Structures are given as C-alpha cells and as structure tokens.
C-alpha cells in the first residue's frame, strides 16, 4: 500500500503558526528594529549574554554582528 505524500507546506504552516513561534519571531523582529537593522541587512542581532544563560532582550545586551560571527559564537558567553 502506497503511503500518502507529505504536505510540507501544511506542516510548515502548522509549526510556524503556533503562538510560541509567532511570539519568538516578533521578539526577533523587535530586536532587529531596536538595533536599527533594516530589511535586507545581512547582519543579525546577537545577545552578548545568551537568553539561555540569564541574558535579556535589553538594548545593553544586544549587538549587530555578521551571520558568520553569530553562528560561530552559538550560546557560548564571555561574562
């Protein structure tokens, strides 16, 4: 018996439509706006002290960095 093909578009909508995903996306967008990053700017907002280690979304804890820098840093922290 053949399996039904997966509906990837529906799976995407179901996942990204969850309230927690919408909230996280809104927080990322707000952080980009606070840092003055415009649409199309390749830089990302980096948390100096990661949220997972007690950091906040305050302007003092944010900085604009390249994607490579942000990916390399991961959740490590220099206290």
Q: What is the structure about, briefly put?
A:
Helices cover 41% and strands 10% of the residues. With 79 residues, it is of the alpha+beta class.
Describe the structure.
The protein is α+β, with helices and mostly antiparallel strands and 79 residues long. Helix content is 41%, strand content 10%. It is built from three helices and two strands. The chain has a two-stranded antiparallel ribbon. The longest helix is centred in the middle third of the chain and has 16 residues, at 19-34.
Give the helices and strands, then pairings.
Elements: H1 8-16, H2 19-34, E1 44-47, E2 62-65, H3 67-73
Antiparallel strand pairs: 1-2
Order of helices and strands: HHEEH
Which blocks of ≥5 consecutive residues have pLDDT under 50? none
Q: Helical stretch count?
A: 3
Shape: elongated
Q: Which percent band covers the strand fraction?
A: 5-15%
Q: Total strand count, please?
A: 2
- Going across the biggest sheet, name each strand in turn: 1-2
Major sheet: size, sense and barrel closure? Answer: 2 strands, antiparallel
What is the first-to-last residue Cα distance? 57 Å
Rg calculated over all Cα atoms? 17 Å
Structural class: alpha+beta
Helical residue percent band = 40-55%
Mean pLDDT across residues: 85
Q: Which key phrases capture this entry?
A:
alpha+beta, 41% helix, 10% strand
